From TrEMBL, chains A, B:
Record-annotated membrane-spanning stretches: none
Keyword annotations from UniProtKB, A to Z: Signal
Entries under Pfam families matching the protein: Acid_phosphat_B (PF03767)
Protein name: Acid phosphatase
Entry annotated with the keyword DNA-binding: no
SUPFAM superfamilies given in the database record: HAD-like
InterPro entries, A to Z: Acid_phosphat_B-like, Acid_phosphatase_pln, HAD-like_sf, HAD_sf
GO MF term set: acid phosphatase activity
Residues of the signal peptide: 1-21
């Protein structure tokens, strides 16, 4: 058994060494010199995660200073961890490998598969009133190129540099979400974008969405400049308006719990993974 | 780098071979003959998870028949996967290792650490009206000894054999939850058990809780025999009664989303991991 496992590891590492292209064709490298591991991440990401210590330099499982990064991430996704400001410094490498190494994409795929199965099972009225709400950042578009240069969420959020990045209009489509988006249109369910991006970013947001292949949305709802209030307050208020206008929100997908909490939530909600930041 | 990793693997496997005692002192073995891996699970569980294929015999990442078990588990914990009947057959080994190999305990610890930090930060009225709701199965008591003999959730639920197991009164305390329970009592917050176990199981449930070291709860609320309705309906109804009686539910912890959804939820909710079954 032991020999067989060593062989598995050896084969994985050899495959990694000969692998050339990074996953998701992002062409992003980890900030530190971990070339072999980066390449390996595309081939056998969980292996890399496992070999990498789950905690900081203490090497201790969350008792003295360290935090077990996979447990931290689960606590974030299950809404046990709230109101956090930054990713634990010890977890930069873990989150980076999670995001770039295939794990994030695999987790997202399972969520979207579930969403599509749900949508396909709906009995639609066919009156054109059924809509599905999509968040934008880290849901429809990925800002991973930005976060990869800024510590994968370990650095405090910098509005200036992030907004400059948004204005480039270079965020990437999340392929899983785009698959859901296109499927819904084919089913006759209308996508509505609902985002914490502000109204003055409308033009570049439209450009970015189109560049990345999104077509056919019904509405793009942005936050008024100077809006005071929480993300939940803004987004649930907009969903209420949709409902009051006669639309039926059959689904709602976002990467933040604040995207999918607050009545009316939508008939069914989906939480995409996001271990990089928290919006309350 | 590659050599260093091979050494890590080798050392882990050697340590595993010489390890004697199972984790959590449960003395449960995986049903199939995986002695080396079982032992290793206590030493380096994530390593074992990684070396074990994440999917079924197809070895395929969720595209043709297989399901990536870690992504499936995340989808369960984040409430993306709902109304599922059994753990995917391919994931029996994965779930077994998750539950027995330290990962489950580590994930639970992070949730409870968060709950304790929250409780310690509360400004209490000190009038004895503040309560915290605890679910029982897979929250306060663990039925892992039962599920380990029944495929870790891959077998359809068998009420007859499970109820026979409950009547043994041999379920184990979840040490993390017990730590929260004791901490709350020391803070002056009163624990209330609220369970889907039925009223005719009250006596053995009390015996089991006491045997496992639980003392000082304020109420033990069980479901009436023959109750028609959902788990959410029953539990939210009981929480409403608590509130109407003048209690303030400062916290609520369970392993099922149906433990913590439905107004009044409690001021803050905590979702413990449970990849073995779903109660809607």
């Amino acid at each position: 058994m032991a020999t067989a496992k060593l062989l598995v590891v050896l084969v994985a590492l050899m495959a990694a060494a000969s692998s050339s292209c990074g996953p998701w064709e992002l062409n992003i490298r980890m900030p530190t010199a971990r070339a072999v591991e980066d390449a390996a991440a595309g081939v056998a990401a969980p292996l890399i995660h496992a070999l990498r210590p789950l905690v900081g330099s203490a090497g201790d499982l969350g008792r003295r200073g360290g935090v077990p990064c996979d447990s931290w991430r689960l606590a974030v996704e299950a809404y046990n961890k709230r109101d956090w400001k930054t990713v634990p410094a010890d977890c930069e490498g873990y989150v980076g490998h999670y995001m770039l190494g295939g794990h994030y994409r695999r987790d997202s795929r399972v969520v979207v598969d579930e969403a599509i199965a749900y949508a396909e099972g709906l009995k639609l009225a066919g009156n054109g009133r059924e809509v599905w709400v999509f968040d934008i950042d880290e849901t429809s578009l990925s800002n991973l190129p930005y976060y990869a240069k800024h510590g994968f969420g370990t650095e405090p959020f910098n509005a200036t540099s992030f907004n400059a990045y948004v204005l480039e209009g270079s965020a990437l489509a999340l392929p899983e979400t785009q698959r859901l988006f296109d499927k819904l249109i084919s089913l006759g369910i209308k996508p509505v974008f609902l985002t914490g991006r502000t109204e003055n970013q409308r033009a570049i947001t439209v450009v970015n969405l189109r560049r990345q292949g999104y077509y056919g949305w019904m509405k793009l709802l942005l936050k008024p400049v100077g809006f005071k209030g929480t993300a939940i307050g803004f987004k649930s208020g907009e969903r209420r308006k949709l409902q009051d206008a006669g639309y039926v929100i059959v689904g709602n997908i976002g990467d933040q719990w604040s995207d999918i909490l607050g009545a009316p939530e939508g008939a069914r909600t989906f939480k995409l993974p996001d271990p990089m930041y928290y919006i309350g």
